[in-house]
Amino acid sequence: MSNVTVWGRPGWQVDGWVRDFFGPAAANDWLKDFSPAAEVSKDGDDAVVRLELPGVDVAKDVNVELDRGRLVIHGERRDERADNAEGRTLSEVRYGAFRRSFKLPGHVTGDAITASYDAGVLTVRVAGVYAGSQPQRIAIDSK
Question: Is-contact 54 98, C-beta < 8 A?
């Protein structure tokens, strides 16, 4: 027979620290929402943005938009379980609304953006972001 003990991490508690520093309202907002981890990489002339969104129904709860020169990804991770779910003794998963925004060059249009979702990762490819971004030397005329 084995006993399972669920315990919290030793040391300072993040929610307590946020409450003490920013006040209870800020702590509630910070603890309720989350910001998915993002990675932006260069693939040839394209920019590739990856967001970790495991357990999110991207078809229903995620929007990818081009808004005034910014790639905006926003949505929500919903907690479908009841608040008093039997057996939940520890939860480190953040639920709630999220919004990530990335500045794009002026020449990028919506046609250059594609998105796919696989294995909990949203991948957004922005074609041609780095095209023509090499420095060009300008000759100086002297008199």
Answer: no
Q: For 46-59, how does the pLDDT look when each residue is reduced to its tens digit (9 = 90+)? A: 999 999 999 899 99
**Residues whose CB falls within 8 Å of the CB of residue 100, separated by 6 or more in sequence, listed in order:** 35, 36, 38, 51, 72, 73, 74
Q: Tokens 């520890």 sit at which residue?
A: 90
**Long-range contacts formed by 77-84: CB under 8 A, 24+ apart:** 77/34, 77/53
- The pLDDT tens digits of the residues spanning 88-141 come to 667 777 888 999 999 999 889 999 999 999 999 999 999 999 887 677 788 899
pTM beyond 0.85, yes or no: no
As a dihedral over the C-alpha atoms of residue 46, residue 52, residue 58, residue 63, rounded to 10 degrees, the angle is -60
Identify the three-state secondary structure at position 14.
helix
